[in-house]
Amino acid sequence: xxxxxxxxxxxxxxxxxxxxxxxxxxxxxxxxxxxxxxxxxxxxxxxxxxxxxxxxxxxxxxxxxxxxxxxxxxxxxxxxxxxxxxxxxxxxxxxxxxxxxxxxxxxxxxxxxxxxxxxxxxxxxxxxxxxxxxxxxxxxxxxxxxxxxxxxxxxxxxxxxxxxxxxxxxxxxxxxxxxxxxxxxxxxxxxxxxxxxxxxxxxxxxxxxxxxxxxxxxxxxxxxxxxxxxxxxxxxxxxxxxxxxxxxxxxxxxxxxxxxxxxxxxxxxxxxxxxxxxxxxxxxxxxxxxxxxxxxxxxx
Length: 300
Description:
The chain contains 13 helices and nine strands. By secondary structure, it is an alpha/beta fold. This is ExeA family protein.
């Protein structure tokens, strides 16, 4: 179930005594990030890839919180004074084939890394010289105490050739130590590619840890409590106890043709939760209901 973005009305904000919407620009500090067990593991996996030059893919549906994890990692590096350079190639208009957009190739990645290490660098023209130049830059930077993380967002749009070549970036070493880690941020399509029997990606599949961000199902009450706690409200100030079961029910998608209860898929991800909560709170405020209950949610 995909819900259209719904802002809280001024009436709803006043009705529930909120100074602003808890669903817009809601993550402004690291303390604002809800720490479910899955999120804590994904955070640790990203930091490990940065510190120890590992290979990880963070996979989740749209609105699952992947971008928030990336931003939290970058803020954590700043807050803790870690010597980690996060390199993010631009992925605007990136597609898996040139017929749909622009593909991100290994040469583009190499240029992004070299530019991040030395913006004034004159990049060599031949592939051999360019990659040798990159390798030397990474080794010198590592010996100076810096760690490097190549972080590619929208990685489900990577062409297979580039995905396969990521292993070769990991193979750049200084002695026995890797000089760069790789983190892929992607929607579930990447998981399907890595788990396929395609021989082109088997070397990546065998080396990349895939960390999935699951729906909030069992964490829904705690998530909402955290969200409203940032505004000094409890979930009981806004929702009746039966509201959460109704929320879960509304965020279940049953594939067409499936029998009730069979093949059901939860879409209980933060963005979908935010949109449904905003619609329900607007509806409750419109009729003057003191709190959002199951009947309000059922009709949103």
